[in-house]
Design brief:
Shape of chain B: globular
Largest sheet of chain B: 2 strands, antiparallel
Number of strands of chain B: 2
Strand content of chain B: under 5%
Strand content of chain C: under 5%
Number of strands of chain C: 0
Strand order of the largest sheet of chain B: 1-2
Oligomer: heterotrimer
Order of helices and strands of chain B: HHEEHHHHHHHHHHHHHHHHHH
CATH topology of chain C: Helix Hairpins
Chains: A mainly alpha, B mainly alpha, C mainly alpha
Number of helices of chain C: 4
Shape of chain C: elongated
Helix content of chain B: over 70%
Number of domains of chain C: 1
Largest interface: A-B, 31 and 32 residues
CATH architecture of chain C: Orthogonal Bundle
CATH class of chain C: Mainly Alpha
Chain lengths: ~475, ~500, ~120
């Protein structure tokens, strides 16, 4: 099997799983087995592409022509591979977790849930392996649409409202800003294929580059750059597994991925640096970073705090990309991976707390670490990764971003990173402290650890956080390839 | 031999079949004849379209009276495509019509329905294929008179008032068109489009030409429901029999838009119509108003059919916007949207016909929980809705892409911005349906889970599948549109 | 050409505007159709008047006749008259059906009844 066909097959697997999930709708165990099988085979297939990609191969395939001269095309390159690998491996873990969560909480519409989940993963893989901007846009929009039923899963008024904000902001930004940016790129460059050093070299002046970049950056609403970040907290009405895999990994990472992809593959780092059109982006991303952290600091609802933390962490990626140095881009790619593992752990823990103790507020968590040690232990590791402390993966990516900022002599970015680290510590450490060292106010009788499937999942992802710190070699190899070195 | 007579056969076949159906007085036979004729017209349209590749023009002199004295049928890549759209949609709608017509119109008048349908088809095809300005008027009235009667056959009494209203406005529109043609005739002495185009440059007194242009614009604008001349459309589409809504929504206004394109580009010529005169600016302003007002009005409707009808007003704005850009790219976008919107609205109205059949109505409180009661239909409506929004992977995206490329290519950034902003209005009304269908409980007394009968659902799904297929692989439509656009721009020398 | 020479056009415009006014201003469905008929008949004049040439003969090819009237407008307008009659017939039929359904042919009463239906 050639690499290109492998990429096409990887894209097809989640979509093929949907009929299987639907057919097995009356038998939950079979249904989850189908999802698990799809997840494992997708993960295996993506992994099997790794050696070739690391060796510099770029498996590509043209699927069909969509518009004259523009095909739906796949091309596996290091960044896309990283994203696909993260999404597919975490899909495996979260399948266990979802099954535990949905059954533990007696959620309805479980078949719809797993079907949409598989579709979301398919769309995410499509985004990851997109060979040109049109393909990227196709799957980007698909991802928005297929996650909407998951956001509004509960069907309540609140879910409906959340769904409206979610859809309005994501589709709104993509149609109003991203689509014109893509069309403009097509008109200016005559191609939409990604290239290692961009496709707009020598075709833009400084001011139009800044405008086009703004259209792209605000158009990629999934990257949650302020002021278009509100969909992410709104999406928290979804069941926690959705928040965990989609709104900490697949959807938001699709946004971060697109940001890096556009900066590197469409504009080209050197072209953009030469035009000096990205300084404003560093500032906006820096502002988002700090502002979201401040909001997170004040949020009492645990999932809301995590959501704003995600907004802030996504801004790291955007800011790193805007620094336009290979080191910072490497940091951005690493952060995409590190944040995924850290944040999914945190969300898994939040879901476990909800399932086991029915608690959603930070202020209710006093002493919960004593009854749920595994959950809160995993949470602590995730929190360390968010803050950027060893021995968690977040340390690595922050290190590279910081080095990138210093090598670019961008002292504003350095300052932002320093302040945000303090803020991160400010809103994560108190949770860990409360959980382990504050005595519970009211004895919460009967609270035990969450179901095994859930505990196991979060231990695995927390372990992955540590493993990434301890053995960063392969991932750094890919990140280096992303930055073109 | 037969091939040479195809241009006229396409039109004559339904014209001859209509009175035969009346004579036979049998509903089933009428339906079969209508279906057979539509299928034959489709096949012949395909053959004709294949005959006029690229630069070719097919000319047919009726009764062997040489043009410009006799009536000429003149076919190029532009109108062949329109004829194909009309006949193909008729062929797909008719299988679904059988059951709905029997229910909505009644067995006693069933055969009359099919006779009228055939006349309407004949008129629309005639408008598309003829090369004679006055002949367009005649066919326009043939199709319009049939349409008034068809709409009046609708389920409740509001269909009668809708038909009456349409009759008044439609007749005014057709009369204004014929006045415009008269003025052009006075200065050129010919009614043949191609001949007229040749003689017009030599006309010294331009004022009748400009007046003629204005009259034709307003007249055809009325028939095409260009904002603010759209008042007749929502009620007509909403209260007509289901099959009629689907057929008209996909074809009727499109044919009038075709006449506008023909007159602007092939007869008057772009330099006069868009260079010397402000047609482009006026059309663009009206199109933008249509996008905003039509889609905006769709959001507040409480009936699914009315919502779709107002959405048509908005979507027609995209087509006229493409015409107003006066460029090959703009015309390509206009033609592509003409086809894509025809397919999308045809699909949607057919799906809604199935909904009406099972639930007895299409008000939003009746269709609550449709995702549960009619899952397949409901999902297909969502796909059609996504095409109205212009989500990638649906036909609507391809034409919107072409339109935005044309606008940006012409440096009109603000137009592109408005086009895209109006998609968000479409998002709002489509999502109103989605929330009603998926996030509301079915009303008490709703029928059990199940789809409409297959003969209604399958044609609708075929059109829906076409919407997706032409969205994922839009090249054939865009290339045919591009050939049509260059045929219009080249004119008929 | 003098103002008098444009007489035919003046008549056309007068008929056109009178007809259109009636269609808009009258609420009675049958009266509206009368207005519509007037409106259409203006076109008949527009076409036929220029067809007649002063001093021209009937359009029969004959020795000696050099100037003759144009027959084509008559043919066209014959068609247009047929169309007009058909339109009027359909319009009147609709008016009859509306009266059966609503019990009135006054537009405002019909609208009120429709509003009542919701």
């Amino acid at each position: 099997m050639t690499g290109g066909a492998g990429a096409a097959l990887a894209l097809a697997i989640p979509f093929l799983a949907v009929p299987g999930i639907w057919l097995a709708r009356r038998r939950p165990n079979v249904r989850e087995a189908v999802t698990f099988l799809a997840a494992v085979s997708l993960c295996g297939l993506v992994m099997s592409l790794a050696p070739a990609v690391l060796c510099g191969e770029r498996p590509a395939i043209d699927l069909f022509e969509m518009l004259p001269g523009l095909s739906v095309a796949l091309k596996v390159e290091p960044l896309g591979w990283l994203f696909a690998a993260v999404a597919s491996s975490l899909w495996v873990v979260s399948t266990f977790y979802s099954a535990g969560y949905l059954r533990g909480n007696d959620e309805g519409h479980q078949t719809r849930f797993f079907a949409c989940f598989a579709l979301s993963l398919g769309a995410a893989v499509g985004v990851a392996f997109a060979g040109n901007l049109l393909t990227l846009f196709l799957f980007y929009e698909l991802l928005t649409l297929v996650t909407w039923p998951l956001v509004t899963h509960h069907g309540t008024e609140e879910a409906k409202r959340g769904g409206r904000v979610y859809l309005g902001l994501l589709v709104g930004t993509s149609v109003l800003f991203l689509l014109p940016a893509i069309v403009a790129t097509w008109v200016i460059a005559g191609t939409l294929e990604f290239a290692a050093d961009g496709i707009l070299a020598g075709k833009l002046d400084a001011s139009s580059a800044a405008v086009l970049l703004a259209l792209f950056m605000f158009g990629i609403g999934k990257a949650a750059l302020m002021p278009f970040h509100r969909w992410l907290p709104a999406a928290m009405v979804a069941p926690t597994p959705v928040s965990a895999l989609l709104h900490a990994v697949a959807v938001v990472k699709a946004g971060a991925f697109c940001v890096i992809k556009v900066v590197v593959g469409v504009f080209g780092i050197e072209t953009l640096a030469g035009l000096g059109g990205a300084a404003w982006l560093t500032a906006v991303a820096g502002f988002t970073l700090i502002a979201a952290s401040v909001v997170a600091l004040r949020a009492d609802n645990l999932k809301r705090r995590l959501a704003y933390s995600t907004v802030s962490q996504l801004a790291y990626v955007t800011m790193a990309a805007s620094l336009l140095t290979p080191l910072a881009v490497m940091g951005a790619a690493l952060h995409l991976v590190a944040h995924a593992f850290g944040k999914i752990t945190l969300f898994f823990a939040a879901g476990s707390i909800y399932t086991a103790a029915h608690k959603t507020a930070v202020s209710e968590l006093d002493g919960i670490g004593r009854v749920m040690p595994w959950t809160m232990g995993a949470f602590a590791i995730g929190a360390l990764s968010m803050i950027g402390l060893p021995p968690a993966a977040g340390f690595l990516s922050k290190w590279f971003i910081l080095s990138g900022a210093m090598s670019a002599a961008d002292w504003l970015a350095v300052a932002v990173l320093a302040v945000s680290t303090l803020l991160n510590a400010g809103y994560y450490l108190p949770i860990v402290f409360r959980a382990f060292f504050v005595a519970p106010g009211t004895p919460s009788a009967g609270v035990r650890e969450a179901p095994l499937a859930m505990v196991a999942s979060q231990v695995v992802t927390a372990g992955a956080c540590v493993a990434l710190f301890a053995f960063p070699g392969p991932v750094i190899g890919f990140a280096r390839a992303v930055a073109g070195g | 031999m037969l091939l040479a007579h195809l241009p006229i056969l396409i039109v004559v076949l339904p014209l001859v079949a209509a009175p035969l159906v009346v004579l036979v007085r049998h509903g089933g036979v009428g339906w079969a004849v209508a279906l057979g004729v539509s299928a034959a017209s489709t096949a012949m349209s395909v053959a004709v379209l294949a005959e006029v590749p690229g630069t070719g023009v097919l000319s047919y002199a009726i009764g062997s009276w040489e043009p410009p004295w006799g009536i000429e049928y003149r076919i190029d890549a532009g109108n062949a495509l329109v004829a194909l759209l009309v006949s193909a949609v008729a062929t797909i709608v008719l299988p679904a019509a059988k059951r709905t017509v029997l229910l909505e119109v009644g067995a006693d008048r069933e055969y009359l329905f099919y006779a009228l349908f055939l006349l309407c088809l004949c008129g629309l095809l005639g408008i598309a294929l003829t090369g004679d300005a006055f002949n367009v008027f005649v066919f326009l009235e043939i199709s319009s008179l049939a349409t008034y009667a068809l709409i009046a056959l609708g389920r409740d009494r509001r269909a009668l008032t809708a038909a009456y209203q349409y009759l008044l406005l439609g007749t005014i529109g057709a009369t204004l068109y014929v006045i415009g043609v008269g003025l052009l005739y006075l200065v050129t002495g010919t009614l043949n489009f191609a001949d007229m185009a040749q003689r017009l440059p030599a006309v010294v007194d331009r004022r009748p030409v400009i007046a003629g242009l204005a009259f034709i614009t307003v007249g055809m604008g009325l028939k095409a429901a260009i904002f603010p001349l759209h008042a007749w459309l929502p009620n007509a589409y909403a209260h007509a029999p289901s099959a009629v809504s689907a057929f008209l929504a996909a074809t009727a206004t499109k044919v009038s838009l075709y006449v506008m394109m023909r007159v602007y580009y092939s007869v008057i010529g772009a330099p006069t119509a868009f260079g010397a005169e402000p047609t482009g600016a006026i059309l663009m302003a009206l199109s933008i108003a249509a996008l905003l007002v039509g889609s905006g009005a769709a959001i507040v409707q409480r009936d699914l059919r009315l919502m779709l009808a107002f959405s048509s007003v908005g979507q027609i704005g995209y087509i006229t916007l493409g015409i107003s850009l006066a460029s090959a790219a703009g015309m390509t976008a206009a033609m592509a949207h003409l086809i894509n919107h025809g397919l999308t609205k045809g699909a949607l109205f057919l799906l809604v016909a199935g909904v009406a059949l099972r639930l007895g109505g299409t008000r939003f409180e009746q269709i609550a929980g449709l995702g549960r009661t009619m899952p397949i239909t409901s999902f297909a409506i969502v796909i059609g809705g996504l095409s109205l929004i212009g989500v990638p992977g649906t036909a609507g995206f391809a034409s919107k892409w072409a339109l935005v490329v044309a606008a940006i290519g012409a440096g009109l950034w603000w137009v592109a911005a408005i086009v895209l902003a109006s998609s968000l209005l479409a998002l709002a009304y489509v999502w109103k349906f989605v929330e009603a269908a998926y996030l509301s409980a079915p009303p008490a007394g709703a029928p059990a889970r199940g789809e409409a009968p297959a003969d209604v659902t399958v044609p609708a799904l075929v059109l829906t599948a076409a919407v997706v297929a032409f969205g994922l692989h839009a090249t054939p439509v865009l290339e045919a549109s591009s050939r049509a656009a260059s045929a219009f721009l080249r004119g008929w020398p | 050409m003098t103002t008098l020479g444009h007489l035919g056009y003046w008549a056309t415009v007068a008929l056109l505007m009178t007809g259109l006014y009636i269609v808009i201003a009258r609420g009675h469905l049958v009266k509206k159709l009368v207005g519509l008929g007037l409106f259409q008949s203006s076109v008949y004049l527009l076409y036929i008047v220029p067809g007649k040439l002063v001093g021209g003969t009937s359009p029969i090819v004959d020795q000696g006749a050099r100037v003759y009237s144009n027959p084509l407008p008559h043919v066209l307008i014959l068609t247009a008259i047929v169309v007009g009659v058909a339109t009027l017939a359909v319009g009147l039929a609709l008016a009859v059906r509306i009266r059966e359904a609503y019990g009135t042919v006054e537009e405002d009463e019909i609208l009120a009844a429709d509003d009542h239906d919701g």
